[in-house]
Design brief:
With about 280 residues, the protein is α+β, with helices and mostly antiparallel strands. The protein contains 6 helices and 14 strands.
Length: about 280
């Protein structure tokens, strides 16, 4: 059985909200080894939940990215965090993650405005060109336009408020990514890069088992010790510091971790010194 229908069904199930076709440029920022990389693209459709796009680069499912797009007739761009749902060739689906309220309301406003414009254009196309221009027909068309415009006029004060909120959101978004760029530059200058524990755990090439202290064994002490460690560019453990856990077990955990070896972490194509957390669990049985 072909996997294509199943894949298409999964995408349809993910799309809980209707999407509106839109053709605008899209800028995607993704972290690769702690360094931000900008990928150009084009948005193909949009909803309050996410976007469909064509991206000039490879993305992995569940990968976290930041994106920016400018919707027609809006003075400020939409900036948001998103999760990659899928990518087939260059086409991909991005789901918004913790979208700020100002950004969501701005997207909702644009979708409502686009939907109203589409309804008006469709009604005008469907009216017969040979229709007799009577007083009743003119009045009906006038009333119809008024009914379509009134909801939009009520949204104008909201649009002004959203513009202010979007500027605040843009400042917060820009500040976070400036901090990220500064962190990457600082890391490149020789400071350890902070890497999640689950990533460094996959790079362990030698792991010595800790020696259970006899005093702790006789006293029935057990539990997990959390260590903060600095791993050199050559994969050796440079520094270890106990953060939490039973004191009787902390020293034994640190002694064991000092002999561990890791595959060097790559940043910008070069081995880099990293800082990470290591958990060592002591159980009597």
């Amino acid at each position: 059985m072909s996997a294509a229908p199943s894949s298409a069904l999964e995408k349809m199930q993910r799309r809980a909200l209707p999407r509106h076709a839109v053709r605008v440029t899209l800028d995607v920022v993704v972290l690769r080894s702690g360094v931000p990389e900008h990928l150009p693209g084009r948005c193909t459709d949009l909803s309050e939940n996410g976007v469909g796009a064509i991206i000039a680069g490879n993305l992995a499912p569940d990968q976290q990215v930041a994106l920016e797009l400018r919707l027609p007739n809006l003075g400020v761009p939409v900036r948001a965090r998103a999760r990659v749902c899928y990518q087939e060739q260059l086409r991909c689906g991005l789901q918004f993650a913790a979208l700020p309220i100002d950004q969501r309301e701005m997207i909702r406003y644009w979708l409502q405005r686009s939907a109203a414009s589409g309804i008006r254009a469709s009604q005008e196309r469907e009216s017969p060109k040979t229709e007799a221009v009577t007083a009743a027909a003119v009045k009906e068309r006038h009333d119809r336009r008024i009914r379509l415009r009134l909801p939009l006029r009520r949204l104008y004060p909201l649009a002004a408020l959203l513009g202010i909120l979007a500027l605040v959101g843009w400042w917060q978004w820009q500040r976070s990514w400036n901090e990220l760029d500064a962190h990457a530059s600082f890391a490149g200058a020789g400071s350890p890069i902070r890497v999640p524990a689950e990533i460094m755990e996959q790079r362990i090439v030698y792991k010595a088992r800790p020696v259970y202290p006899e005093e702790a064994r006789l006293g029935g002490k057990q539990g997990m010790v959390i260590l903060d460690a600095v791993i050199g560019a050559d994969g050796t453990v440079r520094r270890v510091r106990a953060v939490s856990g039973p004191e009787l077990l902390a020293q034994a955990a640190a002694d064991a971790v000092r002999s561990w070896r890791f595959e060097p972490y790559q940043a910008g194509g070069k081995p880099a010194e990293v800082e990470t957390s290591i958990a060592v669990d002591f159980r009597l049985n």
